[in-house]
Amino acid sequence: MRKPQAVLFDVFGTLVDWRGSVSAGLAAFGAAQGLAADWLGITDAWRGAYKPAMNAVRTGALAWTNLDDLHRGALVELLPKFGVPGLADAQIDELVGLWHRLTPWPDSVAGLNALKSQVVIGSLSNGHVALQVALAKHTKFPWDMIFGADMFGHYKPDHEVYLGACKFLGLAPGQVMLAASHNEDLAAARALGMQTGFIAGPMEFGTPDERARPNQDWEVVADSVVDLAAKLR
Amino acid sequence: MRKPQAVLFDVFGTLVDWRGSVSAGLAAFGAAQGLAADWLGITDAWRGAYKPAMNAVRTGALAWTNLDDLHRGALVELLPKFGVPGLADAQIDELVGLWHRLTPWPDSVAGLNALKSQVVIGSLSNGHVALQVALAKHTKFPWDMIFGADMFGHYKPDHEVYLGACKFLGLAPGQVMLAASHNEDLAAARALGMQTGFIAGPMEFGTPDERARPNQDWEVVADSVVDLAAKLR
């Protein structure tokens, strides 16, 4: 393995605990409003609506729509199913904004800083630029560059996203590593010639499951971002 | 004036001393190669070739070409006029790379850090993403977001650049300030509804001249980036 010149990161699940953050935010909203509901169930259903909505964009069934708008549409649909009465638009917006203020895994910031001293680090997320700028402000992720899906008008795993980021960096895919906790994201990157780093540590879905184990011989398999930085040094 | 939610910066001249940096880099190259030439004159001629080359792209006479390639073409043309014999491609590339390693004005980093604690800060430069990522690594500019001309396929003062950056940030033009030492850059931003901040301090061309004085009532006129941050606080 040649040392990559840039490492690009998946964000949701790989670097931040979306499930813990969003469910806590929903529960706090419910408490303030005097609403009781299965907030963790709503969180999982909300995230579950993510892939079908993105796929509608990826197949062209839906024109380009950013993640805020996909989140908004999904939430409005699923809340009544969970017995939560119609909320005002401003309340929906407030909840959509929870995805801009997610909590990092404990070692994400330290790991990114350790990597930043070695190589270019960037995000490569299905979040749009505005969401990611807000999230980086909130988390203190020290990005050299943010790549958002709206820069490409495509969602991962469309190849335009991976190859577009490499092109912006002026690097060949083989000079760039994608780091992610999701095998399918890494598989898409590898198919395009990128290097791959699997981060096995986070328990994105609350309990260890097979999604948290590597299913290919990725160039690097690490327990955490700090471990990835150490293995690339 | 409402406080902007984001401040975007012109880079060349506003935040970095391209003239001092490039001429020093050329002189060092010359000394290493045993070549004598008017390196400051070459620097000024090189920068002088910048606007016509960009304008060829802006008018469509030339397909999208990034700043490295514009710099390369201009340098190859002008070196013989300054009595510098044909250089190897690798040497030309090395000199083009000088624009990735420019020295900031003394207060640029401190000023950007002071602003970053208040608002989103980003670059809005005719440099492409790869150049700007390298330059930010070199200078330690703490960008929340880098906006490069290649994200838009246009050069300033084309409106696509200014409005495209606002759109990526999810902000209306009136919520965003352009900060620059160049009146014409600010005039283009103001015409699109952006706020404007003039930074009068740097002596980009080596001596104080009228280009270093505001020629409109910009929302903020500051002596330096540190002063701009203080005036926005």
Give an overview in words.
The structure is a homodimer. By secondary structure, chain A is α/β, with parallel strands linked by helices. The first copy, chain A, has 2 domains: about 5-15 and about 100-230, Rossmann fold, CATH 3.40.50; about 20-100, DNA polymerase, domain 1, CATH 1.10.150.240. Helix content of chain A is about 45%, strand content about 10%. Chain A is built from 10 helices and 6 strands. In chain A, α7 links the parallel β2 and β3. Chains A and B meet through α7 and β3 of A and α7 and β5 of B.
How are the elements arranged and paired?
The structure is a homodimer of 233-residue chains.
Chain A: E1 6-9, H1 18-33, H2 39-48, H3 50-58, H4 67-78, H5 89-96, H6 108-116, E2 120-125, H7 129-139, E3 145-148, H8 159-169, E4 176-180, H9 183-191, E5 195-199, E6 220-222, H10 225-232
Parallel strand pairs in A: 1-2, 1-4, 2-3, 4-5, 5-6
Helix pairs in contact in A: 1-2, 4-5, 6-10
